[in-house]
Amino acid sequence: MRKNMLLIFGLLCAAAAMANGQFEKAMGESIPAMFSAQNPEELQNAINKLDRIGDAEGDRWEPYYYAAFGYIRMSGMYEKAEDKDKYLDLAMTEVEKGDAIKPNDSELEAMRGYIHMIKLTVDPATRGMTYSGLAFTSFQKAIKLNPDNPRAHFLMGRMQHGTAQFMGGGNEDACASLFKAKDLFANGENEVNPFAPSWGKDGTDESIKAICEKGE
Length: 216
Known about the structure:
Elements: H1 2-36, H2 40-57, H3 62-75, H4 81-101, H5 106-122, H6 124-145, H7 150-167, H8 172-187, H9 201-213
């Protein structure tokens, strides 16, 4: 009996290891494909695969996070406001899927704020009051959830800069957020999850050069 139980336990462990290996392989292919996609068709294929991975696993938020990022990228490939909104709404749906698995996660909340920020840029004149508040609320929450999340500070800096440009203010707050993000990126992210977000360093450096060093 004990021998049979050990055999069953061993088979279960092997099955779990195989499943983990398949997840890692699929994510290892899909995340780079999402970032490197050059047209809507390539991007949609990567997003669809990420969605399938998330649906198959059932308890991993990362596929939905990257699918949301993919739809943000997709929104930038279109000119019409209705097309941009369509893909930004799909991005928010992906964030909500991730949030259902891992509520109150700093990365997902920062992504939510990112979507609000891009929504604002589609029509700043009519959306400024609504979406600026939503974006700032999400970025503030993301920072509170994890003060060491560099992407939350980076996106906050971009939002502060955009607000200053629109309202006619200075970039002191934006630069403070961007330099905070730069410091956090420089210190490295102590993240054991190989699929945790790691993007944003280049964007932070470029933003500092454009906003804080050249006075955009």
